[in-house]
Amino acid sequence: MAILIGVDEAGRGPVIGPMVMCAFAIEAEKEQNLRNLGVKDSKMVPSVKRNKLFDDLSENFQYTVNVVSSKEVDDALNDSELNLNWLEAVTSAKLCNELIDELGTDKVKIILDCPSVNLEAYKEYFLKKLGKDIDVICEHKADVNYPVVSAASIIAKVTRDRAIYHLKKEFSVDFGSGYPSDPKTKAFLEQNFDKYPFFRKTWAAWKNAKKKATQRGLGDY
User: Fold this and answer.
1) Around Cβ 215, how many Cβ atoms within 10 Å?
2) In sequence order, what DSSP letters do the residues of the chain get, joined into one string?
C-alpha cells in the first residue's frame, strides 16, 4: 500500500504568532477523495469552507502538526546553523518521521511545498534530516498542484488561525492578522512592540518599530 505524505506551512511571514507546519497522509489510490471533498490550497478556500474541510480531514485521515512559536522562529534565525528555510526542513522531517512511525510503513512518497529558490539544496537538506531512503518530490506551488499538500495547507492554516484567535483572547488584544502589511498589525506593533511575548523579534517590522520608538524617546530630551 503506497502512501502519499504532503507537507506545507502556514504563517511563515507574520511578525506575530506561530508558524504552523503539517504533514498529511493518504493512500495514493485515494487521493481523488481529497479532490471530491473540494480540497484546494488553503488560500483558495473561503474561511467557512476551510473550517469544514479541516473537520472532515481531521476525522478521516492521519496527519501530524507542529506549532512553531515566535521564540522558536527567532531562535532559528539567531542560530548560525539555521535559517527559516532550514527550520521548515527540520520540522518537516520530524513530522514526516512521526507520521511514518504512526503508519507503520516506509512505502511512502513525500511531497514538499518548497520555500527555497534552490529546490535541490532544500531536498538534499530535508533528506539528510529525514534519515530515510524515501522518494521525495520538492516543488514550488506543490500546495496548488497536489491535493495531499493542499490538505496539509488547510490543516496548517486553520490551526494557525485558531492559535491567533487564542492569543487575542488570552491577552485581550486585537492585533489584526499579524502580517506586517496589515495596517492594524503595524499600528499595534508600533504601540506595543515591547509589551507582549508573541512578536518575532528577528523580523524587520519589529526592529523598525523598536527603532522608531527609541528615536521618539530620544526626541523627548
Assistant:
1) 9
2) --EEEEEEEE-SS-SBS-EEEEEEEEEGGGHHHHHHHT---GGGS-HHHHHHHHHHHHHHSEEEEEEE-HHHHHHHHTSTT--HHHHHHHHHHHHHHHHHHHHT---EEEEEE--SS-HHHHHHHHHHHHTS--EEEEETTHHHH-HHHHHHHHHHHHHHHHHHHHHHHHHT---TTS-TT-HHHHHHHHHHTTT-TTB-TTSHHHHHHHHHHHHHHHHT-
Please write the tens of the pLDDT for every residue from 101-157.
999 887 899 999 999 999 999 999 999 999 999 999 999 999 999 999 999 999 999
Question: Contact, 135 vs 172, CB < 8 A?
Answer: no
Architecture of the domain made up of 172-215: Orthogonal Bundle (1.10)
Verdict on whether the full-model pTM lies above 0.85: yes
CA 160 remoteness from chain centre: 8
In our burial notation (b when 16+ CB lie closer than 10 A, e otherwise), range 125-162 reads bbbebbeeeeebbbbeebbbebbbbbbbbbbbbbbbbe
CATH of the domain spanning 3-170, picked from 3.30.420.10, 3.30.428.10, 3.40.50.720, 3.40.50.300: 3.30.420.10
Chain centroid to CA 177: 15
Cell of 32: 481523488
